[in-house]
Amino acid sequence: MTRNPPPIDPPAPAAIEVRGVHKRYGALHAVDGIDLRIERGEILGLIGHNGAGKSTLFKMVLGLTPATAGDIRVGGTSVQGRDFRTARRHLGYLPENVVLYDNLNGLETLQFFARLKGAPQAQCAALLEQVGLTHAGRRAVREYSKGMRQRLGFAQALLGDPQVLLLDEPTNGLDPQAIRDFYATLRSLQSRGVTIVITSHILAELQERVDRLAILAAGKLQALGSVQALRDQAHMPLTIELALDDADIPTAVLALAPLQGVTATAHAGGLTAICPRDAKMAVLGALAPLGTRLLDVQIHEPSLEDVYFGLRDQ
Fold this sequence. Notes:
Elements: E1 16-25, E2 28-38, E3 43-47, H1 54-61, E4 69-74, E5 77-78, H2 84-87, E6 91-94, H3 106-117, H4 123-130, H5 146-157, E7 164-168, H6 176-191, E8 195-199, H7 203-206, E9 212-217, E10 220-225, H8 227-234, E11 238-244, H9 249-256, E12 263-267, E13 270-275, H10 280-287, E14 294-300, H11 304-312
Parallel strand pairs: 3-8, 3-9, 6-7, 7-8
Antiparallel strand pairs: 1-2, 1-4, 4-5, 9-10, 11-13, 11-14, 12-13
């Protein structure tokens, strides 16, 4: 007797799925045919110049601005569908410019937003503590610094234990310790399955803190992948710094001269070699005969800023 195989459960829907989305404002094409799938529990960095379409895309994901064409789904629910009002309660949003009521204090501000979102009032004091504002909870918001306002805005975004967080330039005004604490909070949220999309103009800040990056330019998705994948895609060269006694520099220059695409520039204390990514081992092999006369080697990958401009301008 032949047994039927057990049914295969359909894959879980993506946290956010953007399919062929366009947004036009008259002649302006703010978002131009974007396809993007963001998995549950992923931290995605969304980067691009001012006017690239980042904030517009956020507003469409939130259901605040309808797409001109295409479809956006959050957790499998269409943002234009009847059920999205309920699904939106599981979204947290921190806009680039946080607008708060100056006559309320920090705790009252969170209590106000909790009522709007249907979140438990009991969360408010705990969130103030989480963002380091317990000491200022009874102070009027008009007395808050820019960094304190930013932290209060972040606490607002965390109300209701959202499963998806959209954070637009969230570290504006934060000091280095607050930035470190902020990203530690994001990692803790990610470990609980929260999906996070974050924009920042400080590219070095995102470089080691996101799972993937999406580069927008003129409303289009220019590139998508991990930092290393984008480095490979951009075909940007490596920089190799070699420390040598001055007497050994000519020998090193001669050793590298036959390698195609490799340029070596001598300077006091060594030389700098610029080489294609696939020539790294050839460079090191050519230098091997120097043995211990090669005092130090440092290999520098292109920075995220280099990669961004390299891909954006392709």
